[in-house]
Structures are given as C-alpha cells and as structure tokens.
Amino acid sequence: MLNVYVAVLGPVGTNCYIIKNEETNESAIVDAAASADRLLKAATKDGTELKCLMLTHGHWDHIGAVNDIAAQLPSLPIYIGEDEIKLMESPEANCSAWLFGTPDMVSKEKVNALKDSEEITVLGEKVKIIAVPGHTAGGICYYFQESGYLFCGDTLFQSGIGRSDLPTGDEDTLLSSIKEKLFTLPKETKVFPGHGFGTTIKDEVESNPYFR
Predict the structure, then answer these.
(1) pLDDT for 184
(2) pTM, whole model, 2 decimals?
(3) Phi, psi of 79 (to 5 degrees)
(4) 156-166: buried (b, 16+ CB within 10 Å) or exposed (e) per residue?
(5) CA distances to 29, 49, 85, 103, 183 from 89, in Å
(6) Which of 96, 120, 151, 194 is the most exposed place for a label (fewest CB within 10 A)?
C-alpha cells in the first residue's frame, strides 16, 4: 500500500508530495518547490530509500529544490514530460526570472523525459503518464493505477483549474485536457493537486464550475 504525505513549501504554498511504500521502505517525491533538505529528510526518514523525483511541470514553484536534491543524490532518477524540458531550462518561460529576479532552471542532462501514455514503475506500482497541455505545453500527470492516485500539478484543482496566462499556457487546451484525459479516469480516483486541497475525479466532474 502506498501512503501519501504532503509538505507545503515555497513562497506560493506548493504541495510537494512524498509517496511511501511502507512494505518495501521506499519513497518518491512529486514536485520539489523548495527546502531540499526538509524534503530529503522526510523522504528518507527511518532508513527509507528515495527512488525518484517526479516533476509535473517546469514552473519555478515546482522545481526550486531540484538542483539541490540532484547535487546530493546525483544518481537519483528525475522525471518530467518530454515537451516540458524547454520551459524547465528557461528562467523566462518558467517565470523565475521576472517574478523574483532570481533565475532558476534545471538542465535537461539531469532529467529523464517521459512520453504521453508511457508507463513506468514507481515503488512497485505501474504509473501511467498522462500529457495534459494547457497550464503549460508539456505538463504531465502521474496516474498510479492500482492505488487510484493522480498527481496532477497545476492542471486540476478542487473546484478550479490551473491558470493559462503564463508562457506556453492555453485555456481551451487546458479544458480539453481535463475533460478528455482526466475526467475519463475512474470516478473514485484521488486527485493530488499542486496547490490547495485534494479532491476526487467524481467531485470535479459533478461540481467543478469550469465544466458546468
């Protein structure tokens, strides 16, 4: 069984998720906004082995701790969507340069690029990669099929959707991605968004105001 813990980090309160397989004593991190040492301490508590870092997209508030984590664990696999690498590498596109004047980027040499519909194994479970362009052009969701967990970054929120006015964003594309890629998942799927509270696919299909 996989358990999910959240650390809300960084200046805009990004949800950084730590997923643990308690049976194998292994963990994974989804998005790393800030405070690398705090994330690593939580992910490796009680001798837990950190197996990978999974990025939903390349905005500054989701990659802020990636370089520090990579420096401490240079062999750690880091995943991101193949179409998000350009944004991740650009301080202008990932918004770090103009928001705070402190450019931040992650080099493509540090990551493993994932394709839409690709399957990877994380903590002993099959994870389907779902490309969800709209918030950014190359954003992805990680769907843990056995557990019924969806880590969706800033694509879908409780009673909301991600913004689409930043570089490579597009609202029509975002709405289509959610309807065609996410709302077709099992209704009981638990949704873990990049900000705010968790939800379910059922609740969003029935009550999200953007789809009424």
Answers:
(1) 98
(2) 0.97
(3) -110, 145
(4) bbbebbbebeb
(5) 20, 28, 6, 10, 31
(6) 120
